[in-house]
Amino acid sequence: MQNLYFGDAPSMRDKPEWMRQDSVRTSVEQALKKFDEEHHLTSFCGAVRRIDDHYVTPVIQIPNSLFLQYPPLEHQPLRKGNNQNGYRSLIHSDMAAVLHEATEGLNKPEPGRFSHRGMREAEEILRIAAKNFMHTPGLSTNGTACMTISLLR
C-alpha cells in the first residue's frame, strides 16, 4: 500500500491511517498464528478501527476440524487486475459477514454498549454470506471453483 497513489487528495490524506490499520491487522494475524497452530484453530480478523487511543480488530476463532468436515476450495492467487477471488467456503463467507457486523459495531458511539440491539439476526447474516459466496465462481481464475461448488452437498 505504501507505493499506491490515489488520484484524489482525501484518499491520499487517509492513506497513512489505512496503512496503520493494515499494519495492526497483519500484526494481530501474525501474533495469533502460533496460538492457532498449538490449539488447532483458524483465526479470522475483521477490519481495524481506532477507538480513542487504541486500534481494535474483532477476531473470531474456529476449530480446524470444521474445515475437515466441510473442506474449502483451494487457495487461488489473485489475477492481475482483480482484488479478490471470492470466498473459499461458506464458512469463510460467514466469518466475513459476522466480522463486518462486528466492525460496524466498532464504528458506533460507545462500541460494545447495547450491542444486543444493533446486530442483524443470524438468518440474515447467513443469507448475506450465502449470497456473497455464490459470487465465487465468477471471480475464479478457471472453472474449477464452479465445478467444485456445484458438487458440494
Give a topology summary.
Blueprint lengths: L8 H31 L1 E5 L3 E3 L2 E3 L2 E5 L1 H5 L20 H18 L7 H4 L3 H12 L2 H4 L4 H8 L2
Antiparallel strand pairs: 1-4, 2-3
Describe this entry's structure for a reader.
This is Probable sensor domain-containing protein. It holds the Pfam family DACNG. InterPro entries: DACNG (IPR048554). Residues 3-134 form the Probable sensor domain. The protein is mainly alpha-helical and 153 residues long. It has one domain. Helices cover 54% and strands 10% of the residues. It contains 7 helices and 4 strands; from the N terminus they run αββββαααααα. The strands form 2 sheets. Strands 1-4 form a two-stranded antiparallel ribbon. Strands 2-3 form a two-stranded antiparallel ribbon. Helix 3 (90-107) packs across helix 5 (122-133). The chain is globular, with a radius of gyration of 17 Å. The termini are far apart.
List keywords for this structure.
153 residues; 7 helices; mainly alpha; two-stranded antiparallel sheet; 10% strand; Probable sensor domain-containing protein
Quick rundown:
The chain has 153 residues and is mainly alpha-helical. The protein has helices at 9-39, 65-69, 90-107, 115-118, 122-133, 136-139, 144-151; strands at 41-45, 49-51, 54-56, 59-63. Helix 3 (90-107) packs across helix 5.
For the biggest sheet, the summary is: 2 strands, antiparallel
Shape: globular
Widest sheet: strand order?
1-4
Tally the helices: what do you get? 7
| Percent range for β-strand residues | 5-15%
Instruction: Give the beta-strand count.
Output: 4
CA-CA gap between termini: 39 Å
SSE arrangement, N to C: HEEEEHHHHHH
Low-confidence stretches: none
Number of domains: 1
Radius of gyration based on Cα positions: 17 Å
Determine the fraction of residues in helical runs and give it as a percent range. 40-55%
